[in-house]
Specification:
Elements: H1 24-39, E1 44-46, E2 56-61, E3 66-78, E4 82-88, E5 96-102, E6 104-110, E7 116-122, H2 123-136, H3 147-155, H4 158-167
The chain binds zinc ion (ZN).
Zinc ion (ZN) binds at residues 89-91, 131, 135, 140-141.
């Protein structure tokens, strides 16, 4: 079974490369991402979370009961209304943190069949898309937090402390 990379893994901190063409290989990878996302009860999964250097993610729409692939996504518009909600991440299991996010956005992307699309999203879907876009930029949930909150989370789990503090350059500050 394909493993999800955990926080502290340097691969999660690299920006992903654009997909040049949506071919069978890319579609197979998207299927794999969707499978891993479902098995782990996730709502979204970015390619780099399973070690693929590709600028793409999958998201489950539970109202429509459909998974959509977002390839080379670009945000065209971000709403100015900011909402704070709890958020989780498959690369940081057992934690949820409050992250402020815009409640609406417009995103341009290439879909599973290689078609260019633009869509408006709001609420939990806008939140999920922002979360996945951050992954593709090499960032993840923990880095949205101030230093004190990061320390609080990490101190509860001594086994991750050393590794992640070293990786994100916090070790020398404490
Ligand atoms: Zn995540």
């Amino acid at each position: 079974m394909t493993k999800i990379l955990m926080h502290g893994d340097p691969f999660l901190e690299r920006k992903c490369q654009d997909v040049e063409k949506v071919n069978n290989k890319i579609q197979d990878e998207l299927h794999l991402m969707a499978t891993v996302m479902f098995k782990n009860n996730g709502m979204g999964l970015a390619a780099n979370q399973i070690g693929l250097d590709r600028n793409m993610f999958v998201m489950y729409n539970f109202r429509k009961k459909k998974i959509r692939a977002y390839i080379n996504p670009v945000v065209l518009y971000l709403g100015t209304n900011i909402v704070e909600e709890e958020e989780g991440c498959l690369s940081m299991p057992n934690y949820s943190v409050i992250v402020p996010r815009p409640s609406k956005l417009t995103v341009k992307f290439t879909d599973y069949r290689g078609r260019n699309r633009t869509t408006n999203v709001s609420g939990i879907y806008a939140r999920c898309i922002m979360h996945e876009l951050e992954h593709l930029e090499g960032k993840y949930m923990l880095q949205n937090l101030d230093l004190e909150s990061q320390q609080k989370i990490l101190l509860e789990k001594p086994w991750i402390k050393t590794k992640i503090w070293t990786d994100i350059g916090l070790l020398k500050k404490v």
